[in-house]
Amino acid sequence: MNNTLLELKNISYKYKNNLILKKINLKINSGEKIALLGKSGSGKTTLISVLNGTIKPTQGEVKLFNKSFEELDRKQKNKITTIWQDLRLIEDLSAEQNVNCGLLAENNFYFAFKNLLNISSFEKAHKYMQLCRLHNSLYDKKIRNLSGGQKKRVAIARSLIQGSNILLADEPFNNLDPKLIRIIKSLLLENVDKNNTKKSPKTALVALHRLDLLKDFDKVIGIRDGKIFFNIKRTSLKKLHLDKIY
């Protein structure tokens, strides 16, 4: 039985005269927790953007649930959620409104309008904000008035409320203290329910810099100069692998 959720076939991406990704082949299977390693500028963010359909590759094919992105409707595309390194929050909306934005794909224009006017229900949003250790005094604060770590947790709560099958995350632990890193890592990688609140998608690919955070991942992908140099079990990772990408 094929359990591949997301697949890249011979993917290359060129921006202006720079070849950012070079003939990438990758399968992400149901239930996998994958760490993506590589130096800044190695192609990690671009790879995530291709995986979620934000960037259309110059060459090759991207398939989600064995269908090309062109064949998918909005709700099907919403089965992937992304935590961006730059967060992509709406500065003039409140924290709770931003979290509620994770529900837009499964709701209509009327919901979006009520959210904009701050008259929609935030009960579900507050559950996820509590999981991300956001105090209730922050719920109605504008994003522009929050700290970097608080904004990060709002973005994470927004991704979790989406209820997606696949999580893609680009350096989600930046701006967090060690205790919060442990909490957020558990939220992103442990697919369990708490008080009827689903914590995380079953399948995840997370871009990292810190090697001490690799525990709890079952696979590791190493990328350098737009090429995948290894795709192995975490328990097989050796110094010789890291020497290839750093």
Describe this structure in words.
The protein has helices spanning 44-51, 74-77, 95-100, 109-116, 123-131, 148-161, 178-189, 239-245, and strands spanning 4-15, 18-29, 33-37, 59-64, 67-68, 80-83, 166-170, 193-194, 197-198, 203-208, 219-224, 227-233. The strands form three sheets. The chain has a six-stranded mixed sheet, with helices on both faces. Strands 2-1-4-5 form a four-stranded antiparallel sheet, with helices on one face. The protein has a domain at 80-163 and 166-200: P-loop containing nucleotide triphosphate hydrolases (Rossmann fold, 3-Layer(aba) Sandwich). A hairpin with a 2-residue loop joins strand 11 (219-224) and strand 12 (227-233). The radius of gyration is 18 Å and the shape is globular. It is α/β, with parallel strands linked by helices and 246 residues long. The chain is built from eight helices and twelve strands.
Features:
246 residues; alpha/beta; Rossmann fold; four-stranded antiparallel sheet; 8 helices; globular
CATH topology of the domain at 80-163 and 166-200: Rossmann fold
Please state how the strands of the largest beta sheet are arranged side by side.
6-7-10-3-11-12
The ordered string of helix (H) and strand (E) elements is EEEHEEHEHHHHEHEEEEEH
| Major sheet size, sense and barrel closure | 6 strands, mixed
Rg calc: 18 Å
- Percent of residues in β-strands: 25-35%
Which regions are unreliable across 5 or more consecutive residues at pLDDT < 50?
A: none
User: Percent helix among the residues?
Assistant: 25-40%
Q: Terminal Cα separation, in Å?
A: 37 Å
CATH structural architecture of the domain at 80-163 and 166-200:
3-Layer(aba) Sandwich
